[in-house]
Amino acid sequence: MSLAGLAILVALVALAACGRDLPTAAVVPLGLPALPVPPDAPLQKARVDLGRTLFMDRRLSHNNTLSCAMCHVPEQGFTSNELGTAIGLEGQTIRRNSPTIFNVAYVEQLFHDGREFSLENQAWGPLLAGNEMANPSIGYVVEKIRTLPEYTGRFEAAFGGRGPDMMTIGLALAAYQRTVNSANSRFDRWRYGGEANALNAEEQAGFALFVGKAGCVACHPVGEKAALFSDNRFHNTGIGYANSMELPRRHRVQLAPGEFVVVEDKALDSFEKRQPDVGRYEVTLDPADSWAYRTPILRNVALTGPYMHDGSLATLEDVIEFYIRGGIDNPQKDPLLKPVGLAPGEKRSLAAFLRALTGDNVAQLAAEARAAAPGDALPAKDPASSYKRPY
Q: Deepest of 4, 8, 167, 383, by most Cβ within 10 A of its Cβ?
């Protein structure tokens, strides 16, 4: 090939590249390790933007009322602060708390019981669950999205001409979720950024307790260069056991904004009974995994209450009290959980440290989610009534 011909070829390749959505450099805030991104699912702006719109779109539920963001509320730490356990389509009960999607890209096995292994596949669980978004089939979701004018051409632009289908919908939602990363907290600036005064004395004392006397670091490790504050493993703390065995408990019930009462189990007998839940055992069928649930990442933990897989602990102080008591005894309780004697001042220091784990971009991430602004025009016809095979 002549030099002139080679120059023309290089120019054509450059022009083609200009028309493509090239991989986006993932922004990893101070304190987080390198972002795990599948080699066959690169982050690209068009995919991220599309996934964000899908995440916010209520029309992805069967009756067009419930979006992903209604259980993972952007302004509430991408969870739901008002609900211990989530509520699905038409008020149906969901037995577990809505986990935050902050830093979800780092979670190795998804859901509280670890039953799914990729964000691409995980997205379909809520879309199809009868008590969540309740779509009757994968094809139903695909055809509905095809009929919505706001998505015309967007999948094709993001996926090299490929339209909405099971794979591209999962890829888009996963791409967005991998960008919801939040760190650069005051703790990070103190430990990893060299800002000696980023934490006050009480918060520094709380960190010393966290990695020392209180023993929290056993399940929420802190590295020398980064920290997820999760071992990505599963532990039985006793809460699931207590629920299954219907051990007597007291419940904090909200009557109105800011108004709570504490009631005994017997006062709730006329309400819906708690659903059976044996945790990770449902995935592995190993009795040793009974009532075990995934260790959450503690970043932004001050924003993501109520806590535990069932949302049964309302405040960080409640969580601290639970763990210093050593959890709830049962045959499979994790041996790492043991009673710890902490003075009132030490408990306050520990809580202060946990509140210093809030990232500096939480408001920005919430605003970006709201800016997606999906349309609200409903499909002219139900996808099941209008579908015609295109071949």
A: 383
Annotate 200-226 with b (16+ C-beta within 10 A) or e (fewer).
eeebbbbbebbeeebbbbebbebeeeb
**φ and ψ of 250, to 5 deg:** -110, 150
| Beta carbons within 8 Å of 304's beta carbon, 6+ residues apart | 76, 77, 78, 79, 81, 100, 102
| pLDDT of amino acid 266 | 65
Question: Is residue 49 domain-shared with residue 89, that is, in the same domain?
Answer: yes
Q: What is the mean pLDDT of residues 223-250?
A: 90
Supply the CATH number for residue 88's domain: 1.10.760.10
Q: pTM (2 decimals)?
A: 0.88
| 240/153 same-domain check | no
Give the pair of three-digit tokens for residue 158.
Answer: 């993001």
Q: Are 175 and 44 spatial neighbours (Cβ–Cβ below 8 Å)? A: yes
- Whether residues 178 and 194 share a domain: the answer is no
Contact 35, 171 (CB under 8 A): no
Give the tens place of pLDDT for each residue, 268-291: 665 666 678 999 999 999 999 999
